[in-house]
Design a protein that fits this description.
31% helix, Alkaline Phosphatase, subunit A, seven-stranded mixed sheet
């Protein structure tokens, strides 16, 4: 027999009184949100400035996130957290691998301007004092940066004089077999190059046959021992790259400690390596997508490296598992941000430096192609006290992070900046006809003309890609309608080049910046 619930004690209020009070709830909620915004602008620190937290997860493609409609449920935590955030659905990195993508994110200019074009590359000297950290130097912000990625570390090393806190990459490593950071911390990039030469195979002029075999065998043995010690939790081995091994859990613990104790207001830039390959999630995430079908294969591209569909599908599943692992740790971080009250005083910006390819015979991201899986990355922004989610479909770029942070901190945006304030943040309206760009030019010299390059421009629903200097695939355009053909399967340019006139003109206006520097 079902029991009847006991009558609720309403403190003597009648049903009519309750209905009258209910009518005022929308006004109370509006007042609460206004109070939260005021708190964000006054309670974050002595200067009244809000905190700014930039979270970068390396190699995180929007194409593989359930937040953006991917059929595998890779990001349940992010899906939930983003219900009270602004989600950007057409966001691109300015580069398709770490160096150009990160450099653009930190300087607000495209690769043709900062010229960090190569793996382990650095920005031109004039941009050393134009980083996100330098631009906030006089605003009272405590500035912290960290990266797991030794490639991104070369960029942060350039900006170290504008940072109060810059730990070594190896400070959060379980195993660190690199020597450049420890022995030459003030000459990191040169030291990393030198270490690479010393340990390279002897089949190149700069390589060392004598050192390569003993060092590689010793390193492999030590790394294997480290992996074996954690095999119960990480059956495929520990996450890591470049002779380093990490636990994302340790990085999140460290992040929570830093955010709990550092002076406010703060600007924190935290660049984690996962889900970058090798894809090694914790045990409970291994195999969770084995019962889900693989995407249909796509035709091979002329610049394909010939990787088999079977390999691509296997690696994609492992990548998706690693994203789910990252998502679990991200959820833990956001529970801290919520419980500590930092979400009410902090702008949180989550994004990536580039994506990953598992199609057209191409794996990874060291490729000249600019299809969306390798350049379309997530961008989610939580404003202090935000309670209502928003979706932005206007194209945006990683060069927009710098001007957006400057607007948040009430700092004038310099005229050399090539980005714009993100639409909807602080009420900024969209720019409908704007074009955003991406470039890959590691086959060109840093200071010379960029004659070997891939360049893309996205405006509205249309994307134009120009390939230059790739042998038989030289001076070739590809055109895609991203609304009708989001998988980029139908190249419209051969049959309808006329519809790309405006986009060709947009690329042409940037040509002068791609010439040799004086």
């Amino acid at each position: 027999m079902l029991s009847t619930p006991a009558p609720r004690d309403t403190g003597g209020l009648t049903r009519r009184d309750l209905l009258k009070l209910a009518a005022f709830l929308p006004f109370l909620e509006a007042g609460r949100q206004l109070a939260a915004k005021r708190m964000a602008s006054t309670a974050a620190g002595p200067s009244g400035q809000p905190n700014i937290l930039v979270l970068v997860f390396d190699t995180l493609s929007a194409s593989n996130l359930s937040l953006y409609g991917y059929p595998r449920r890779t990001t349940p935590e992010l899906d939930r957290c983003s219900e009270r955030a602004t989600v950007f659905h057409s966001h691109r990195s300015a580069g398709n691998f770490t160096t150009p993508g990160t450099a653009s994110l930190l300087t607000g200019v495209y690769p043709w301007s900062h010229r960090a074009l190569h793996i382990q590359g650095t920005v031109l000297d004039e941009y050393r004092d134009r980083s996100l950290f330098a631009l906030l130097a006089d605003r009272g912000y405590h500035r912290l940066a960290y990266t797991h990625n030794i490639v991104a570390a070369s960029l942060l090393d350039q900006f170290r004089h504008d940072l109060e806190t810059l730990p070594r990459v190896g400070d959060l490593a379980l195993m660190d077999l690199t020597y450049a950071e420890r022995l030459f911390p003030r000459d990191l990039t040169v030291a990393v190059h030198g270490e690479g030469v010393l340990t390279r195979r002897g089949d190149t002029p700069s390589g060392s046959l004598f050192l390569y075999h003993p060092l590689s065998l010793l390193g492999a043995r030590l790394l294997r021992r480290s992996d074996d010690r954690h095999r119960e939790r990480f059956p495929r081995g520990l996450p890591g790259a470049h002779d380093l091994r990490f636990l994302l859990e340790d990085a999140v613990d460290w992040t929570i400690e830093q955010l709990s104790t550092m002076p406010q207001p703060f600007l924190a830039y935290l660049h984690y390596l996962p889900p970058h390959d090798p894809y090694r999630p914790r045990r409970e995430f291994v195999g969770i997508f084995d019962d889900r079908p693989d995407p249909a294969p796509k035709p091979s591209h002329p610049l394909s490296d010939g990787t088999s569909t079977e390999f691509l599908n296997t690696e994609r599943r492992r990548y998706d598992e690693t994203i789910a692992y990252v998502d679990g740790e991200l959820g833990r971080l956001f529970r801290f941000l919520t419980s500590s009250g930092l979400l009410d005083t902090t702008y949180v910006i989550l994004t990536s430096d580039h994506g990953e390819m598992f199609e057209r015979g191409i794996w990874n991201h060291i490729t000249p192609v600019l299809f969306d899986p390798v350049i379309r990355v997530p961008l989610i922004v939580w404003e202090p006290g935000q309670r209502v989610g928003r979706n932005v479909h206007t194209p945006t770029s990683s060069v927009d992070i710098v001007p957006t942070v400057l607007r948040i901190a009430d700092v004038p945006i310099p005229d050399w900046c090539e980005g714009q304030v993100l639409p909807s943040i602080l009420g900024e309206p969209p720019t409908p006809e704007r074009g955003v760009y991406c470039m890959e030019a590691k086959g060109s010299p840093k200071l010379g003309a960029l004659d070997v390059r891939s360049t893309a421009v996205i405006s509205g629903r249309t994307k134009l890609v120009h390939y230059l200097g790739y042998g038989a695939y030289d001076d070739v355009y590809e055109l895609y309608d991203l609304e009708e053909d989001p998988e980029e399967l139908v190249d419209l340019y051969p049959a309808r080049p006329g519809i790309a006139v405006d986009l060709v003109e947009m690329l042409s206006t940037q040509q002068v910046k791609m010439g040799a520097l004086p």
